[in-house]
């Protein structure tokens, strides 16, 4: 069998935790931050886990993670 290629765009955006969950960063943190409250921008800094329904698709893009 040939080796599977990792989707490089997905590899830059997702990391796998020790328990096997997929970690992602939050959206809406790149620009136009002056109109957003400080409480919201602080919350956007923290990473969160991917929903269970989306994990199957991302694990297909990242076969060796």
Write structural notes for this entry:
The structure is a single chain. The protein has three helices and three strands. With 65 residues, the chain is an alpha+beta fold. It has a three-stranded antiparallel beta sheet. Strand 1 (14-16) and strand 2 form a beta hairpin.
Topology:
Elements (H helix, E strand, L loop, with lengths): L7 H6 E3 L5 E3 L13 H8 L2 E2 L2 H10 L4
Antiparallel strand pairs: 1-2, 2-3
Task: Describe this protein with a few key phrases.
3 helices; 65 residues; alpha+beta
Q: What share of residues are in beta strands?
A: 5-15%
Helix content: 25-40%
Which oligomeric state applies? single chain
Largest sheet: 3 strands, antiparallel
Number of helices: 3
Termini separation: 19 Å
Q: Strand order within the widest sheet?
A: 1-2-3
Short description:
It contains three helices and three strands. With 65 residues, the chain is of the alpha+beta class.
